[in-house]
Amino acid sequence: MELEESKKVTGNRKSKTMKRARRSGFSWRAIKRVFSWRAIMKRHRLHMTCASSFKQLSGIGDGRVVASPLPKLSEKPKRGLKKLKSLMRITYTASDFIDRGNHMTPTRSPRENLSATWREIHGQNNWEDLLDPINPCVRREIVKYGEFAQATYDAFDYDSFSDFCGSCRYNRHKLFDELHLTKHGYKVTKYIYAMTNVDVPSWFDRPNTGETWSKDSNWMGYVAVSGDSESQRIGRRDIAVAWRGTVAPSEWFSNTKTSLEPIGDGGVKVECGFHGLYTCKGKTTRYNKLSAAEQVMQELKRLLEFFKGRGEEVSLTVTGHSLGGALALLTAYDAASSLPDLDHISVISFGAPRVGNIAFRDKMNELGVKILRVVIRQDIVPKVPGIIVNKILRQFHALTRRLKWVYRHVGTELKLDMSLSPYLKRDFDLAGFHNLEVYLHLTDGYQCSQSKFRWNARRDVALVNKFSDMLIGELRIPENWFQVPNKGLVFNQHGRWVKPCRDQEDIPSPFGEAPSLHLAPENMHAHNKLQV
Questions:
Q1: How far is Cα 415 from Cα 425, in angstroms, rounded to an integer?
Q2: Catalytic amino acids?
Q3: What is the mean pLDDT of the chain?
Q4: Which among 80, 327, 472, 484 counts the fewest CB atoms within 10 Å?
Q5: How far is the C-alpha of 124 from the C-alpha of 346, rounded, in Å?
Q6: Distance between CA atoms of 264 and 334, rounded to whole angstroms?
Q7: Phi then psi for 434, rounded to 5 degrees?
């Protein structure tokens, strides 16, 4: 009876409101439209939709977020389900979905023990049934290696006024501390350098502002290894190689050299620009008496010999963005061909171009290298080289699949879409589409190909604008905010703004890059740090 009376009261209120509206001169059609809109708004009030600005996130008039209706609950809900239903019907505003520095909000999800599942997570079955929808552990692993690749940009010194232009700003012992990456439990063991002036026109040369640390080399990446605690969590000793993408003009020039050159038997060919950067060396140089390829292989052999000697399972994971993704494939090819003792080899690349021909793809599959290519639909770089030719020849795949000069991608693809994030602008920006921080942002919010952006994504949104201007204006995050204070100048004791000298430990040196791996008993503390 009480329920029927409450319905009657509600009905009387509705009819009275309609009569007053009619007396005020509104048509019956307009009145019905208002009341039907109210009913819709009452039924929808949960999740945020993907929009390009807060105005689209907010509801009409009252600022509520428009959402899909709640699923029907069973007649006899389980214990605690009724409270959850009430909580989920709380009205949210757009600002509730933005992390504005609340220290109670974690920036990353908890990490599970992967010792029993790491092979599947790293592509043993080519990530079948793990990408759509994405497995949370796979997502976190992708972001982890993506942050290793991002470190190569964050620490690269390309200040034309710096005496160390082209080097890393920090020594390898400080790199992860300075970039807040110690959370991953890895330790850098080796820096990698690549030649810069081979087959490059004079107008591509790096600016010469005095005595530079090296006129011939650029810092291209590093080798790191998981510590004891992290190795127990992930189920093996993991060696990570991270390659930097294109920054220096000479590297852009290498990217434009799209002819193929042979690297092995069976018609295996790769793009000559990538391969040249990877294999070039010079006897008179300080940092490239060995090529980048030889530096990496030498360090991998050293680490593999040490950890295999301790009876450990050892994996290799190579990562990189753009040009770095291409170098990652070449590294994995070399490692799979020359280091049979490695238990698993995988590549996680971001926005990487095509590297080799069909024979190269087939050889990588034959060697058992597991490759996950993360691409953004709007990014043009993964479509090159051969953006025109490959698209045409794809229509005749049955006829062209054996052609040795046709470029082919290798591995499994995870495709992201700029339009799914509510935090990103909808502007056409080729550089922004290719930005690695945008890749990591979209990966963190990805659920599946048919789903909206993950509402509980934890990675800091401000990182997107580190080297870009891709965030919507309502977030009030400045563009390109990641920079050296005062552009590297400091106020000295004499009251002058000067370019400071680097700390002695941060001055790049071609010597002492590979100290002994022996464990010292006095250093066997909580993390059992390796003397690497």
A1: 19
A2: 322, 379, 434
A3: 78
A4: 80
A5: 9
A6: 11
A7: -95, -5
